[in-house]
Amino acid sequence: MRRFLPIFSLLLLGALALGACSDGASVAFTRVDAEDFASEIEADPSATLLDLRTDEEIATGYIDGAAQIDFYEPTFSGDLEALDRDAHYLVYCNSGNRSAQTVREMKELGFTQVTELDGGIVAWNAAGLPVVTP
Q: Looking at the 3D structure of the chain, how many domains does it have?
């Protein structure tokens, strides 16, 4: 037991030192169902709602207030990089595949608060939530 005490003490001191160096910014990445996603939209009107679908997909209906960043456009990564890393983003696509890939990229880029719609607009529609049809 004595042999492990110094190692434990060093680990504890290291953890405390890292905490002291933190800038206090919290990092939150969550995947939520359609009802909770709707609640997030309502609860945080300053959040940016990102629709990752194509123009053709958006023409079938989108969540009110969404801004489009087409996942398949060659400018997609650059468009993500231009966003404020400390803002809250709510992201969705058609079924969840593109949004999951986007969330991974956002983590790598240092974003701090991203909420993903599990199941995409398909889940949103299945829950009977409203969409805007252009």
A: 1
What is the extent of the structural domain holding 73?
Answer: 24-126
Catalytic pick among 93, 103, 121, 123: 93
| Assigned domain for 134 exists | no
In order along its 134 residues, the chain shows pLDDT tens digits of 333 333 333 333 333 333 333 444 567 999 999 999 999 999 999 999 999 999 999 999 999 999 999 999 999 999 999 999 999 999 999 999 999 999 999 999 999 999 999 999 999 999 999 999 98
C-beta separation of 52 from 69 below 8 A: yes
Q: State yes or no: is 93 an active-site residue.
A: yes
pTM of the shown model: 0.80
Domain for residue 118, yes or no?
Answer: yes
Can you say whether the dihedral through the CA atoms of 134, 60, 33, 26 is positive or negative?
negative
